[in-house]
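Objective 1b. Sequence-to-structure analysis of Indole-diterpene biosynthesis protein-like protein PaxU.
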Amino acid sequence: MTGTKQSAIIPGFTCVAPSIWERLPVLHSRFRWEKSNESPKAPDLILLFTWTGAHGRHILKHADTYQSLFPSSTIMIITTSIKDLWFRNSRSQPRRLRPAINRILAYKHIDNILVHAYSEGGSNKVVEFADAYRVETGVRLPCTALLLDSTPGHPRYLRLCNAARLSLPSIPILGVLGFGICVVVLGIFWILYRCIKGWENNFISRTRRKLLDDTIWDLTVPRCYFFSQADELIWWKDVLQHARESIEMGVPVLHVCFQRSAHCRHAADYPISYWDAVAMTWKRASDTAALLRKKQSITWPLEAAVRTGYKSTISESGSECTLTV
């Protein structure tokens, strides 16, 4: 499936290559909530790295919201499967990601990229992509803002089993059989890394390190971490710990803690808070990029924390975040 063939998996998107989808912009406009003449430039490209086994209709909700916010932006989606995580050698990933890299290089005037990764599958794929981009081009991916939804965690066996269960078919018999197989396979991998390969070499631990690798990421670029205390797949304190590690590396960070949303359900359960945080992160990133181009110093605080419950919104005044409940 290549060329202009329309995807039946993600409606409205064109399949560039297996697991890679694209939608070109429909309008040339500033994003919708900015009305002043000093509105920051919209992303040239929005890269979405989805959670493992994500259904097309769920991906589409995020993509459609992004399109409504940034109608002049191209959107590219890169999906992940269980096979990608557990059974494909990381050395084969650059070859599979090359069509997306070539597509980006073929675009004109791509200077600002918003990158949004979901769960362990998405964050693993995004570091593979950033690594492959550097190898292919000799430069870092021109990422202007990085958003991490429900990731990165630490490898925890029971939570990995729960994650595998949610990625299986909804047909009861297939789900039960598949879950049994996943429990066994994950157990084998667990023992393999604990006893032979080394615990630090599993893909989750490797992803955590790679997200702070300054050879593939510009660590002056603002980040936003989304996590929930009700997430049964990724422990929220693991995500918060990585946010703290980012801050120690000098990364400007906004971390948003939800109280009751399930794994990767924050945008559905708290849409105003979630998308306001996206807007704030992009504005912060755009302002940072403008200051760097003018060779001016950056004065943003390294950390802004927001805790959200029901009926909460986020607003920005200068460089401060205000939570209204």
